């Protein structure tokens, strides 16, 4: 689950400062690496491991010049997280194209082992974006041969290029399976964006009027656009492609639409609360999660008193507040977060996650001593954070420690770009709620029901008939995920973690 931004500004405009600020706004989506590519007939590239602020500086503004560019923050799921895997990727032959994406290619292993070798293509990385890029460029070469500008001066935009771009995206959809939102730029000028046929991964389009002309942007979530003063216009539809040509004319086409199934875990955990995804407010949805969870607590534990509701910062804070209101129990922020420790869920290895938990959160003892507390988190995946914080609460003097999750039990691997690939890591898989409660060492445990979670999310946009809830149910909307595929992805990710 990565973050990206693509911007095409008016002539004479440098987009690097905006791309930088947008990547800072989506840093929560990936802390492993970051990169930016800009285009002025040729590509200018800078990327590296670490946080955005550590990679780019004042020199970057001189290097990354131009009115067209894309940026990316990486959260590793596929690959070993090596330097070669840092996005954006680009090629210069037969046509200069750069790309970044959020998501996962489910048939990446098959493409590496069969499709590309048959064509004499050797991938230079272990990142699945490279497969998307090469298929796109291969298709584009069929429909839009490269033309050499006369006297070094290009004429007006090629009127056939938009159709060629859409046909190339269609070729990607035919060969590259999975869930992905992609943004790309052409060295000669042009910005392309497309969303997978099921719309699993989010993508929003924005625009901004400058004195020199209008600028367009595509991002993972609206918070990135807000940060740079771009007005969110709309979300891309499932299977939609958009191309902004050199004249800044916008071309759109639905290329491969299937049933729209946006990822509900975006609303649970990944997205910022100030974002809208598919016209659904993340913040309001989390309020509804908390209200529903409060109602369930009252049904299941009508006689269990509580002295305080305490969130596990920060994703669960909004839900914990609404849950506390529903229960009529004081809301207390009893855990102090060290903001210089990254999000533990998206750290690349189990050991790093475990080591970071205690450094990340410290209790306010007065909020725990002698109290019956209810800890609220957005989810329980491996149980590392929950177990550690239950121990922390008891050491701080809590009389009773209960736990609530604003999502149902996670039981199934996610092949679509969330690092939930190993079945053995799910604490709830094959266990009852009572068994999980004992394993976590809590006095009471409650999960939000799947139906109530979906209803709370759908209330923000009734047009969404169903969300992707595969990690909670094992039902994969793309209908091409097999046990063999999951096993292969799991083995690859386990090998990558050992690198």
Biggest sheet descriptor: 7 strands, antiparallel
CATH domain class of the largest domain? Alpha Beta
Say what the CATH topology of the largest domain is.
Glutamine Phosphoribosylpyrophosphate, subunit 1, domain 1
Number of DSSP helical runs: 16
Strands across the major sheet, in which order? 3-2-4-1-10-9-11
* Fourth-tier CATH superfamily name of the largest domain: Aminohydrolase, N-terminal nucleophile (Ntn) domain
Integer average pLDDT: 91
Q: What is the strand content? A: 15-25%
Main features:
499 residues, alpha+beta, Glutamine Phosphoribosylpyrophosphate, subunit 1, domain 1, Rossmann fold, 2 domains, 7-stranded antiparallel β-sheet, 6-stranded antiparallel β-sheet, 16 helices, 32% helix, 22% strand, globular
Describe this structure in words.
By secondary structure, this protein is an alpha+beta fold. It folds into 2 domains: 3-261, Glutamine Phosphoribosylpyrophosphate, subunit 1, domain 1 (4-Layer Sandwich), CATH 3.60.20; 273-476, Rossmann fold. It is built from 16 helices and 21 strands. The strands form 5 sheets. The protein has a 7-stranded antiparallel sheet. It has a 6-stranded antiparallel sheet with strand order 5-6-7-8-12-13, covered by helices on one side. The model has no long low-confidence stretch (mean pLDDT 91).
């Amino acid at each position: 689950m990565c973050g990206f931004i693509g911007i095409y500004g008016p002539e004479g405009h440098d987009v690097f400062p905006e791309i930088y600020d947008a990547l800072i706004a989506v840093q929560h989506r990936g802390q492993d690496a970051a990169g930016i590519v800009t285009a002025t007939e040729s590509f200018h590239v800078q990327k590296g491991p670490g946080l955005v602020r550590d990679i780019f500086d004042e020199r970057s503004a001189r290097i990354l010049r131009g009115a067209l560019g894309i940026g990316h923050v990486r959260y590793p799921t596929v690959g070993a997280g090596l330097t070669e895997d840092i996005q954006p990727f680009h090629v210069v032959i037969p046509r200069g194209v750069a790309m970044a994406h959020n998501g996962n290619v489910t048939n990446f292993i098959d493409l590496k082992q069969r499709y590309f070798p048959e064509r004499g293509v050797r991938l230079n990385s272990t990142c699945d974006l490279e497969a998307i890029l090469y298929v796109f460029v291969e298709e584009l070469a069929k429909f839009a041969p490269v033309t050499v500008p006369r006297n070094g001066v290009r004429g007006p935009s090629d009127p056939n290029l938009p159709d060629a771009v859409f046909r190339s995206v269609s070729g990607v959809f035919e060969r590259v399976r999975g869930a992905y939102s992609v943004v790309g730029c052409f060295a000669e000028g042009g910005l392309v964006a497309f969303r997978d046929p099921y719309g699993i991964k989010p993508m929003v389009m924005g625009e901004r009027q400058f004195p020199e002309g209008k600028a367009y942007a595509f991002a993972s979530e609206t918070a990135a656009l807000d940060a740079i003063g771009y007005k969110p216009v709309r979300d891309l539809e499932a299977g939609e492609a958009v191309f902004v040509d050199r004249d800044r004319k916008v071309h759109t086409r639905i290329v491969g639409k299937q049933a729209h199934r946006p990822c509900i875990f975006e609303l649970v955990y990944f997205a910022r609360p100030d974002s809208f995804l598919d016209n659904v407010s993340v913040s309001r949805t989390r309020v509804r999660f908390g209200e529903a969870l409060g109602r369930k607590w009252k049904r299941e534990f009508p006689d269990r008193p509580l002295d305080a509701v305490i969130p596990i910062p920060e994703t669960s804070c909004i839900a914990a507040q609404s849950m506390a209101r529903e229960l009529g129990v004081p809301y207390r922020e009893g855990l102090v977060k060290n903001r210089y420790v990254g999000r533990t869920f998206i750290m690349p290895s189990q050991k790093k996650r475990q080591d970071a938990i205690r450094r990340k959160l410290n209790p306010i003892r007065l909020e725990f001593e002698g109290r019956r507390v209810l800890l609220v988190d957005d989810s329980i995946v491996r149980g590392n954070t929950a177990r550690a914080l239950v121990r922390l609460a008891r050491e701080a003097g809590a009389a009773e420690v209960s736990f609530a999750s604003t999502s149902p039990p996670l039981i199934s691997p996610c092949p679509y770009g969330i690092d939930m690939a190993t079945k053995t890591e799910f604490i709830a898989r094959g266990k009852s709620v009572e068994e999980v409660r004992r394993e976590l060492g809590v006095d009471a445990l409650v999960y939000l029901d799947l139906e109530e979670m979906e209803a709370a999310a759908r209330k923000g946009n009734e047009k969404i008939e169903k969300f992707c809830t595969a990690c909670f149910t094992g039902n994969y909307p793309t209908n091409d995920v097999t046990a063999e595929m999951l096993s292969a992805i799991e083995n690859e990710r386990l090998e990558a973690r050992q690198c």
